[in-house]
Amino acid sequence: MNKLAVLALAFSAAFSGQAMAVVAAPVVTIDAFEADVLSLVNIERAKEGLSALAFDVRLQAAAEAHSLDMATNSCFQHNSCDGTDWATRIFSYYPSGGIGENVAAGYLTPDAVVNAWMGSDGHRMNILNASYQGIGIGYVYSPGSVYPTYWTQDFGTLVAVPVPEPENYAMLLAGLGLLGAVARRRRA
What contacts 62, CB < 8 A, 6 or more positions away? Predict the structure, then answer.
């Protein structure tokens, strides 16, 4: 399923305290597997006395794009399949701050992928990093690719900008259209 079909503008700095910037980003959704992964991650964080992570629209877009890229191009790596460095890719969605990434392929359930990440020192360190506040989780099922499933977790240190609920998409797009009309009028 391609969850990156609708393109809109996201105001990446609205909740982060950064200078106001408008960044092109896909409107994303959270599927049940991605929500389950977040729940499992936050259980692991709670065991260590850490605060829960929240979905961040910017990190969600980056994670979904990377999982889709890996599935579409049958590659499995942190860097984009075209060779773009993983940090450069994330920062094309996320304005600044600390970042981290976990990827996995071939795991069929949220439990299986989180258990695998928690069993790996580097991945576990990302999940349990106390400085992270936001997360994006991309899951793509692609039966025709090398692995049937591709997973990406992108982490960030900025205050999370929430992923809009589906019922708010129409309002978001209407507001963005209004902003576009105002911007065009100012240029005229």
Answer: 89, 90, 92, 93, 94, 136, 138, 152, 154
22-26, 88-92, 157-161: which has the minimum mean pLDDT? Answer: 22-26
* Strand duo 22-26 + 7-11: pairing: antiparallel
For 104-129, what is each residue's pLDDT tens digit?
999 999 999 999 999 999 999 999 99
Inter-CA distances, 146 with 18, 57, 110, 124, 140, Å:
40, 28, 19, 25, 13
- Sign of the dihedral defined by the CA atoms of residues 72, 88, 8, 38, in that order: positive
Distance CA 88, CA 80 (A): 9
CB 156 within 8 A of CB 132: yes
Q: Are 42 and 117 in contact (CB under 8 A)?
A: no
Could you tell me the end-to-end alpha-carbon distance of the chain, in angstroms, rounded to an integer? 41
